[in-house]
Amino acid sequence: MSERRKRILGGWFFALVGVLTAGMVYRHLEQLNAPAWVAYAACWAFVFFGLTVVAFESGLHRTHTWLAVAATSALLAPGAWVAFGPGPRACTVSLPFITSTASEWLCRGAFGLGALMVAVLLVWVVLRALRRDNAGQPRAGIDLR
Question: pTM (2 decimals)?
Answer without folding.
Answer: 0.81
